Automatic annotation (TrEMBL):
EC number of this enzyme: 1.3.8.6
Pathway membership, UniProt: Amino-acid metabolism; tryptophan metabolism; Amino-acid metabolism; lysine degradation
Keyword field: FAD, Flavoprotein, Oxidoreductase, Transit peptide
Name assigned to this protein: glutaryl-CoA dehydrogenase (ETF)
Family that this chain belongs to: Belongs to the acyl-CoA dehydrogenase family.
Keyword Flavoprotein: yes
Length: 387
């Protein structure tokens, strides 16, 4: 019996019935609603905002949160498959869902008060309220401890001053999760974006994540009440815990991008005639396609195991770093090689490889660069911190 070229180890057979149903549902959405428009969205540098209600209707926003807060109560593997199938469409769309779910809804759920959960999460799950995550600053993306944004108490309020950079959804957001230095250490705040003194400026001229909104945030005397502070987040463990959640999804997302490029190159190699035979009949092409299949298979196994560990409550941050490092490197290398196999056709956005390759330049950088994750593993195996 022939194997699925994009699932050589039959990972699908390891999934539960619910996990398979989730993957099929999101795959169908990606095929029918995302792929027909996403090339044009990338060309036009336009986020497909019209898809947000459908994404919400499928239960993809805050999918792992309990149903009482608007979530779907899915397990971590199902959420990973959501990320994989969305990124098979485009990294920008998966980034939107990751930020909304892992970086905005998760901290409200994990660190927020019950009042905050009830006020925000159901509306965010419906896509009525869009969030952004304000941690990164221009001078120190990989060093959040050096953040310059400050929040100070003023009576019963907090006043926040500072700026954030490279913020996904910034100009779409109705609410921002803002992290700031205080006299009690780093703390998080739920800040409505219509608060006086809050501003967002979209970043243009991007050659990556063009179908995504990326912004700079500015906070000039932004005043919020004590009720806006996330009471369960104290110190850098708060934002870093959110990043671990987001990185987990990112370990799955690039698998989808790699599969999209691989399937496209495989089909092209079977049709493209050179010197009287298909490109796929040459040893050079077969070796390259086989190498792609090997690396995709290893990434699939890595993320599946990570998801099972996460659902068992046994996942460690270093394990997430290993998978993020491996799977992003796998995907960007495959995208580049597929672009080459497509020849001149590969430089246009009529084909997926160049778009995915450009997007992955961001994915391999955000949520910890490749070097940062290499050093996390280096610290884990040697016991020595080389940061």
């Amino acid at each position: 019996m022939a194997l699925d070229p994009a699932d050589l180890y039959d990972i699908r057979s390891e999934l539960s019935e619910e996990e398979r149903a989730v993957q099929e549902s999101v795959a169908r959405f990606t095929d029918e609603r995302v792929l027909p428009i996403i090339g044009d969205c990338f060309d036009q540098a336009r986020f497909p905002h019209e898809l947000v209600p459908e994404i919400a209707g499928l239960g993809l926003l805050g999918a792992t949160l309990p149903e009482e807060y608007g979530g779907a109560g899915l397990n971590s593997v199902a959420y990973g498959l959501i990320c994989q199938e969305l990124e098979r469409g485009d990294s920008g769309l998966r980034s939107f869902v990751s930020v909304q779910s892992s970086l905005c809804m998760y901290p409200i759920f994990a660190y927020g008060s019950e009042e905050q959960r009830r006020a925000w999460l159901p509306r965010m799950a419906k896509g009525e309220v869009i969030g952004c995550f304000g941690l990164t600053e221009a001078h120190g993306g990989s060093d959040p401890a050096s953040m310059k944004t400050r929040a100070r108490r003023d009576g019963g309020d907090w006043v926040i001053d500072g700026a954030k950079m490279w913020i996904t959804n910034g100009n779409l957001a109705h609410v921002a999760i803002v992290w700031a230095q205080t006299e009690e250490g780093v703390q998080g705040f739920v800040v409505p974006t219509d608060t006086p003194g809050f501003g967002a400026q979209e970043i243009h001229r991007k050659m990556s994540l063009r179908a995504s909104v990326t912004s700079a945030l500015f906070l000039d005397g932004v005043r919020v009440p004590e009720a806006a502070r996330l009471p369960g987040a104290q110190g850098l463990k708060g934002p870093l815990g959110c990043l671990t959640q987001a990185r987990y999804g990112i370990t799955w997302g690039p698998i989808g991008a790699a599969i999209a490029c691989y399937r496209e190159a495989l089909a092209y190699a079977g049709e493209r005639m050179l010197f009287g035979r298909p490109l796929a009949a040459t040893q050079a092409a077969q070796i390259r396609l086989a190498e792609m299949a090997r690396r995709i298979t290893l990434a699939q196994l890595l993320s599946l195991r990570l998801g099972r560990l996460k659902d068992a409550g046994a996942m460690q941050p270093a394990q997430v770093s290993l998978a993020k490092w491996n799977n992003c490197r796998m995907a960007i290398d495959i995208a580049r090689d597929c672009r080459d196999l497509l020849g001149g056709a590969g430089i246009t956005t009529e084909h997926a490889a160049i778009r995915h390759g450009l997007n992955l330049e961001s994915v391999i950088t955000y949520e910890g660069t490749e070097t940062v994750h290499q050093l996390v593993i280096g610290r884990e195996v040697t016991g020595i911190n080389a940061f």
